[in-house]
Amino acid sequence: MIATESLSKRFPRVTALDRLSLDIGPGVTGLVGANGAGKSTLIKILLGLSPATEGTAAVLGLDVATSGGAIREQVGYMPEHDALPPDVSATEFVVHMARMSGLPPTAARERTADTLRHVGLYEERYRPIGGYSTGMKQRVKLAQALVHDPKLVLLDEPTNGLDPVGRDEMLGLIRRVHTDFGISVLVTSHLLGELERTCGHVVVIDGGKLLRSSSTSDFTQTTTTLAVEVTDSDTHPDGTRALREALTAAGATLHARGEDGLPGAGHILLVEAAGEETYDLVRDTVAGLGVGLVRMEQRRHRIAEVFRTGAETDAGTSTDAGTSTDAGTSTGTGAHAASDAGAAHEPFAAVQQKGGGRDGV
Ligand SMILES: Nc1ncnc2c1ncn2[C@@H]1O[C@H](COP(=O)(O)OP(=O)(O)OP(=O)(O)O)[C@@H](O)[C@H]1O
């Protein structure tokens, strides 16, 4: 769907993209990076709207440098910022965009009605856009990207400005764009947690450089975490602490306790399982301390955890209640907000310290 080779974009004072090489196939792909990472710049180059300084890029097999018009015929684009005309209705606006894309009048009206229904705009589609909520405006932006039945849509921060419920609804819509219509999606976000729930593949960029590109399951399964809980004993009144110290001394890697704030979370240690020997190490260490083993179970990583460094391990300062448990993702929407806010900041620095991921960057 999208291929870039050593793609760079330099502005006078900043390198927005730095020798970025990507290969993105069909499906829903997340492009994640902190603010200023270069996501919007990449999208504008892919649409043929902004020339690259160096390197090449192709979308649907078409060269962005020479085939911008042909690319935009087959690709939908939802811009990050609100650029909607306030005085016209959603129907008028989306019909206009459909006509601009080359649809004849009747087809444009029919496609507009279908698309607005798909994004969940009904009677309100006849009211002026100026009176819409942020969520409704985002839906209009999504509809105009879909109306000409593209093969691929590029969605730039579609959840921006939405509350947690609105974000979940938008993410659901994005998933259905692919499952119901077979349209591939490249969606940007600075929130890792969102992409984990929505995308089959995730590309991480920072400072215009590729940090990692892999399937979401690879992100979350490259290492297994063991959740270990032990009892206290007379010798070790804080059994968890004693085990943490003993395991660290034995060379085990412990992850941030992302469950802090959840009931009983302080008693759970997350130990990276390098292999069978980690199970043995935990068992022997627990036995050696003379504390009771309440549980030792495998956990999948969530994306945000993959980006955490060992430095955070012992501090136990994570306030990010949603990152480690399924409960955190499926219950209260507040947990999402906490999770994503936490995930939005530190992870990128952490990745750089680690020297990148499996793509060797
Ligand atoms: N037209 C421009 N002129 C100069 N610098 C620019 C221009 N467009 C983008 N930049 C710079 O390039 C870098 C990447 O910007 P870009 O908008 O692509 O990031 P982003 O990942 O989309 O972040 P955000 O989500 O905040 O928009 C930033 O440092 C930005 O200031």
Structural write-up:
Belongs to the ABC transporter superfamily. This protein has 361 residues and is an alpha/beta fold. The protein has two domains: 2-219, P-loop containing nucleotide triphosphate hydrolases (Rossmann fold), CATH 3.40.50; 223-300 and 309-345, Alpha-Beta Plaits, CATH 3.30.70. It is built from 14 helices and 14 strands. The strands form three sheets. It has a six-stranded mixed sheet with strand order 6-7-8-3-9-10, sandwiched between helices. The protein has a four-stranded antiparallel sheet with strand order 2-1-4-5. A four-stranded antiparallel sheet has the order 12-13-11-14, with helices on one face. Strand 9 and strand 10 form a beta hairpin. It starts with a strand and ends in a 7-residue tail after the last helix. The protein binds adenosine-5'-triphosphate. Residues 11, 14, 16, 33, 35-41, 80, 157 line the site of adenosine-5'-triphosphate.
